[in-house]
């Protein structure tokens, strides 16, 4: 018996890799960073000069919103507002059939009440430019296939209804389609690889964030509705 | 360390041959602990969220995080402070100052290492390189090839940290950039498939470099419905990794997920949401003992 156990033990030892001689007891948890913690003044001193410069720009009130706005699939007031604003500003000087943004690109919510420059920066922190991509009609099937399984992306001047595997839409019959979007998506971001079929691209020279800032300065009250432009049946 | 391990192995073998009573060996056992603190996807959140914020009122803030880190450092001798990427992008601090402040603050908090997330390319690879030069912490990436970019020489695949009895191999893994980051931003950066690199590197760190703890800083994301490479897949296919500190999916895990790997070993995955709302804390106790250990490993095979 003793010999048997010894042999067994020896086998186990030889069979183990070096790391097997190390025993870990690993325990973990996450700790909230909340108001219970006092701020380290030495660290505040590092960022305060940066903060003073930013605050003067960021605290400007641009307009008023009667409702709290957040992104939702397949559509929400916020999804629709962003796409509508981009459609409106891109179609001022160019012909545009519809606007397509991406759900993941909506980076924050907008508060009920005063909307500041800071809120728009939170919503659209990226430096992306608004561009207009022209694709052949034949490539639209890829766009619709993408939208079908997406669960919803911000769109404007377009209605889609998805039922089972089928998608119906409001797009007019044309040889080529002009889509307003961001340069990020135009370059295949969020796997929108169909934009690689582009036959022409117009750069608006406008950053999406700047378009949102211009819009907010122009309006007094932000109005947006849920109009069933993106529905699953 | 390696001498110590050899010694322990020899003692253990001796114990097996002569069948010493295991309790006699327990007398010499040594227990030390290491505290790993980690963040991910801080996204340039320097100040706390405003008090009227719908989801996270008053949460976060780098000055409070620094206070918590300092407090833990006074309590525990051996610590590591790590970040799993997407340090940049999300507040005007990044838009106006380009990431300089984020890195200065990480220097002030004495971060040991960080890996690179997709949003860290948002001012282009040149924008990242500009800030990488001021970082006092290691930028680790084992699967981004920066040879043809301005980031050349500013990252390492891995770094080995010595903390008491611990020899900790830390390496970084980044997500596929194509389809996620504008090509003009990542420029000539080449992404390589992470799994095989992780398998080879973790085995090298363990067996050649003598690391007794392997940590992967990953910006791959926790899990996907598709077959996209994730921390979960990485844990299942790369059993040498002890702890994966993840990011990208902004997942709040209250405590690490335990994955049972093919070798019957447990790999821990942690991720703490985003925006510096939480600090992850993982305490590792390393027990160098002998017979009891062998039995423990046996029982772990059932996990």
Which superfamily, in CATH terms, is the homologous superfamily of chain B?
Metallo-dependent phosphatases
Based on the structure given, which CATH architecture of chain A is correct? Alpha-Beta Complex
**Number of domains as seen in the coordinates of chain B:** 1
Give the structural class of chain A. alpha+beta
At the fourth level of CATH, the homologous superfamily of chain A is 5'-Nucleotidase, C-terminal domain
Low-pLDDT stretches of chain B = 10-30, 289-303
- Oligomer description: heterodimer
Rg of chain A = 26 Å
As a percent range, the share of helical residues of chain A equals 25-40%
Task: Explain the overall architecture.
The complex is a heterodimer of chains A (233) and B (303). Chain A is built from seven helices and eleven strands. With 233 residues, chain A is an alpha+beta fold. Chain A has a single domain (61-232), classed as 5'-Nucleotidase, C-terminal domain (5'-nucleotidase,  domain 2), CATH 3.90.780. In chain A, the strands form three sheets. Chain A has a five-stranded mixed β-sheet with strand order 6-3-9-5-10. A three-stranded mixed β-sheet of chain A has the order 8-7-11, with helices on one face. In chain A, α3 (77-90) crosses α7 (208-218). Chain A starts with a helix and ends with a strand. Chain B is built from ten helices and 13 strands. In chain B, 50% of the residues are buried. In chain B, β3 (113-115), α6 (124-132) and β4 (138-140) form a beta-alpha-beta unit. Chain B is globular, with a radius of gyration of 20 Å. Chains A and B meet through α1, β1, α2 and α4 of A and α1, α3, α4, α5 and β12 of B.
